Amino acid sequence: MLMRTDPFRELDRLTQQLMGPGTWSRPSAMPMDAYREGDEYVVAFDLPGVAPDAMDINVERNMLTVKAERRPAAKADDAQMELSERPLGVFSRQIVLADTLDTERIQADYDAGVLTLRIPIAERAKPRKISIGVGTGRREISG
User: Fold this and answer.
1) Chain Cα centroid distance, residue 35
2) Which neighbouring-strand residues pair with 69?
3) How many Å apart are CA 124 and CA 121, to the nearest integer?
4) How far apart are CA 70 and CA 91, in angstroms?
5) φ, ψ at 17 (rounded to 5°)
6) pLDDT tens-place string over residues 79-118
7) Environment class of residue 43 by beta-carbon count within 10 Å: exposed (0-12), middle (13-18) or buried (19+)?
8) Beta strand residue intervals within the chain, DSSP E
9) Which pTM does this prediction carry?
10) 69-82 average pLDDT score
11) How many whole angstroms separate alpha carbon 62 and alpha carbon 104?
């Protein structure tokens, strides 16, 4: 038997019991990190225990939607639950992507419970040099 006291975790557990697990019409949020790495924008979602076939990733215009469902693990008929802290149900997150990202070339990888999306920066958004004509000669400035 496990004994542990953490008032905030207990409050989260009670809230989830009252509200029930996330459903497709009312999903729970999922934690994520987002950062730029070179010429890519990286978004990582924590989805431990979620099978890749239970994930749905969509992009419509510049709205990225990630949905996932964590289903209960199969237990023996005589199993008696002592502690249940791992949330079950549907999780979802929507992110508005900047126009400077190339949504046609998003790559998704799932490893060790983390779904990682890599979104390339669009060519039109990268810095480039513009040449200026002055009289008969030309000079370059970087912008």
Assistant:
1) 12
2) 90
3) 8
4) 8
5) -65, -40
6) 888 877 777 788 888 999 988 899 999 999 999 999 999 9
7) buried
8) 32-37, 40-46, 55-60, 63-70, 89-96, 107-111, 114-120, 129-134, 137-142
9) 0.68
10) 83
11) 11
Q: What is the token pair recorded at 26? A: 């009312």
Amino acid at 23: T
For 25, phi then psi, to 5°, come to: -85, -20
Residue 42 and residue 117 in contact, taking contact as beta carbons nearer than 8 Å: yes
With tokens 């029930």, the residue in question is 20
Q: In what order do the strands lie in the sheet with 114-120?
A: 32-37, 40-46, 114-120, 107-111
CA angle in degrees (0–180, nearest 5) for 15-92-20 = 25
Q: What pLDDT digit, counting tens, does each position of 4-56 carry?
A: 555 565 666 566 555 555 555 556 778 899 999 999 999 999 998 899 999 99
72-77: long-range contacts (C-beta < 8 A, 24 or more apart)?
Answer: 73/49
What's the one-letter identity of residue 29?
A
Residue in this structure with the two tokens 């997150």, named with its chain if needed: 93
**Residue 62: how many other CB atoms lie within 10 Å:** 13
For residues 23 and 89, what is the distance between their CA atoms, to the nearest angstrom? Answer: 6
